[in-house]
Amino acid sequence: MDLFENTERTNLEQLGEFGLIDHLTKNFVIGKSTTFKGIGDDAAVLDAKDKKVLVSTDMLLEGIHFDLAYTPLKHLGYKSVQVNLSDIYAMNGIPEQITVSIGMSSKFPLEAIEELYEGIYLACEQYNIDLIGGDTTASKQGLVISVTVLGYADEKDITYRNTAEEGDLICVSGDLGGAYVGLQLLEREKLVYLENPQIQPDLEGKDYIVERQLKPEARRDVVDLLKSRGIKPTSMIDVSDGLASELLHICKQSNKGCNLYEEKIPIDPMTFETAREFGLDPTVCALSGGEDYELLFTIKQADYDKIKHDVDVSIIGYITEPNAGKNLISKGGSVHALTAQGWNAFT
Amino acid sequence: MDLFENTERTNLEQLGEFGLIDHLTKNFVIGKSTTFKGIGDDAAVLDAKDKKVLVSTDMLLEGIHFDLAYTPLKHLGYKSVQVNLSDIYAMNGIPEQITVSIGMSSKFPLEAIEELYEGIYLACEQYNIDLIGGDTTASKQGLVISVTVLGYADEKDITYRNTAEEGDLICVSGDLGGAYVGLQLLEREKLVYLENPQIQPDLEGKDYIVERQLKPEARRDVVDLLKSRGIKPTSMIDVSDGLASELLHICKQSNKGCNLYEEKIPIDPMTFETAREFGLDPTVCALSGGEDYELLFTIKQADYDKIKHDVDVSIIGYITEPNAGKNLISKGGSVHALTAQGWNAFT
């Protein structure tokens, strides 16, 4: 599991910061009409035209957000872009630019950084994003990745968290809990490997949940789908910290309650089975696992017919008046207060 | 020199990420008309109106960009904003928003983070900036600060690096080398302290150069001055890596040469004397020291009369045709090739 085994090594110290930036960005072509000027000056210059500009930022730190023992650098680069794009889609906007700042040990071979950038580039290519700037520096302790994303939307299309209304249907795209269960699997195989490096990791048949963890996809397709159906969500958020935490954000900011039905929460069979293998409750994984990067949104009941046949969107509950509480209705029919046990970086 | 000595300690683990963000940002008021929505959703929303949007980002890592042994956290917060604002001024634009991402040990007391944010807030207040988002996370790798700045300018006012013309005068604001010499002083006092913790740091009378290092000020006033004089620089860059490196950027990107006169380079007497105490050449400190965050710009000769009486702007040379080379003319009159030995984070 040594990612740098058998790779060529070029020395970062010789290349220097400007040489490295030139090397990494020279093949990158700017494509968006909102990008007036990309890399190469003190700041990039953007032309928002008549749109509002959406800005979000996320930082990924080695040892906290990722473990290089089982995270291929290309996947890491890809993921660090996706988690940012997801925030713009969650506003019902279109991301068009990113800046990427990287801190890494000067002992890192150039080839490793190139792998990381391959993943960044792949994400940019597939999601039609311009890389317009950033910062590259040495780090004394580990890999640091900070991405800022810029997106655009017409004012009337922007979807906030604080605008859910009583009676709205609660919807979520895709399925939940997979990224968390995938992480448990990777952590287990790491321990097996550390105990006996002769044993190869056993991830056979688990591709889906491993990919959910290592290579998530931001749900641009869901934003497109809603637009094509003529639906503007009444509120929206992306699922980075777990369904419970995100739904509580919507309820709190909208000053509403909710009824969430356990049996309606979409969980992939592989997630379900693997959670059980680990002695975990699949529902808890979906509620509190996080990192699924699905979209959680509310729609008016009148829009139900427009979306009811879309298998990739599940209706999992509805918004209530605030005094009705925030409830999880279990498969057995009992009512529980919904609580966030989402990921806390500080514990 | 223990910054946390005798301070109260509140546990970050108990507060959690959302609690911490709420706590740190609750008193922060949004003020710019370009800020449509600040902190509190998946992304901030900005209204560029009819302006171009300028974007830049800078990352500061403990052990590389700062040493907490002698850097007060409030100063560090202030500086991490200033270095970003400086990039927008260097485009002849006005910065209006920042996002701030912080990674820190969960062992950090809340009071330490509050100090850091006090500096961030002070910079925002003094420079009229909205804090619109960010990310707060635990770090296993020491303190990590990543700031992205957004600014605005009319297209006609934006000043790039690649537009200097033959005959243009090379100008620099303020004085150079102070931040580097201040750093040498702080490093020396740190060593003295480590050898004998009873000895208090001797920085008496050195306030100016210590401040140049710990608490730089981005040169908004120079942008304002040029505007009030009716001067649009033909090119501009900020001095973060040293005068030589920055001037070479302008020459390379503009495909021009330059003559830079050593005797014209502005160096404060305290910088000069302290450099000599350390056995350093003050000119080399100015050329290669970096972190002064002054503005280096070129103007048409016709604009000379508009600025010649401004003592805070020095005319240090002129732009030549590319084949004339990039020359430093020493005080003795000898001609040297200008070379960048600016700061390289990887060595």
UniProtKB/TrEMBL annotation, chains A, B:
Residues binding ATP, per UniProt:
Y117, G134, D135, R161, S240
**In its keyword annotation, does this UniProt entry include Transferase?**
yes
GO biological process terms, semicolon-separated: thiamine biosynthetic process; thiamine diphosphate biosynthetic process
EC class of this enzyme?
Answer: transferase
Residues annotated to bind Mg(2+) 2 = D58, D87
Q: Which residues form the PurM-like N-terminal domain?
A: 40-152
HAMAP family referenced in this protein's UniProt entry, alphabetically: TMP_kinase (MF_02128)
What is this protein called in UniProt? Thiamine-monophosphate kinase
Q: Which organism is it from?
A: Mucilaginibacter agri
